[in-house]
């Protein structure tokens, strides 16, 4: 192998090894959820393969903030049962200080894209395991196991549960 090829191979190996510590998004399953703090323990649903081919099981991640749509004017949130699917997104910088409200984040943080700096977004499921709700004719809406609030593009809205349907 030529010197140039060796340098390129060394750089590729270094980059692959470095990328093992960079995490962007993973599917996960909620193990537990505290509705008051909106923090969850989440088990990533995939394993990693190391540079040397070893399978690495990722342990559950504690104190993961759950991101529900909302603003200072409204909040949409709910409960998360064990086994609920979430999308784990990993921060480009450490978020612990920001979450505690005690400091601004520093741009040059050693925990970039770390497994410890994740947020969870509810609703990511394998296609074969998407939860079934009451939705039948609604084109948009919100649903739980026993309640549906939905509507159609022509302006029809409905509220239904397992025993009653209200339409407006």
Uncertain segments: none
Number of helices: 2
Average of pLDDT: 81
User: What is the CA-based Rg, rounded?
Assistant: 21 Å
How are helices and strands ordered from N to C? Answer: HEEEEEEHEEEEE
Number of strands: 11
Structural class call reads: alpha+beta
Biggest sheet strand order reads 5-2-1-6-7
**So what's the overall shape?**
elongated
Level of helix content?
A: 10-25%
Distance between the termini: 75 Å
Strand coverage percent? 25-35%
Largest sheet composition: 5 strands, antiparallel
Account of the 3D structure:
- The chain contains two helices and eleven strands, in the order H-E-E-E-E-E-E-H-E-E-E-E-E.
- The model has no long low-confidence stretch (mean pLDDT 81).
- Helices cover 13% and strands 32% of the residues.
- Strand 10 (157-161) and strand 11 (165-167) form a beta hairpin.
- The protein has 168 residues and is an alpha+beta fold.
Topology:
Blueprint lengths: L2 H17 L5 E10 L4 E6 L3 E2 L5 E2 L4 E5 L19 E6 L5 H5 L17 E5 L17 E4 L3 E5 L5 E5 L3 E3 L1
Antiparallel strand pairs: 1-2, 1-6, 2-5, 3-4, 6-7, 8-9, 9-10, 10-11
Which properties best describe this structure?
168 residues; alpha+beta; 4-stranded antiparallel β-sheet; 11 strands
């Amino acid at each position: 192998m030529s010197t140039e090829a060796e340098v390129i191979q060394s750089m590729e190996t270094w980059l692959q090894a470095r990328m093992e510590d960079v995490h962007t998004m993973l599917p996960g399953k909620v193990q537990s959820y505290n509705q008051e703090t909106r923090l969850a323990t989440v088990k990533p649903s995939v394993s990693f393969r190391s540079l040397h081919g070893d399978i690495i099981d990722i342990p559950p991640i504690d104190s993961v903030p759950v991101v529900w749509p909302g603003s200072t004017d409204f909040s949409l949130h709910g409960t998360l049962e064990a086994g609920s699917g979430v999308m784990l997104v990993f921060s480009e910088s450490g978020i612990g200080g920001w979450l505690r409200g005690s400091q601004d984040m520093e741009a040059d943080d050693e925990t970039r894209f770390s497994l410890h700096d994740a947020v969870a977004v509810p609703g990511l499921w394998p296609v074969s395991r998407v939860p079934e709700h009451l939705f039948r004719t609604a084109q948009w809406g919100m649903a739980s196991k026993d309640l549906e609030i939905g509507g159609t593009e022509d302006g029809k809205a409905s509220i239904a549960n397992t025993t009653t349907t209200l339409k407006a």
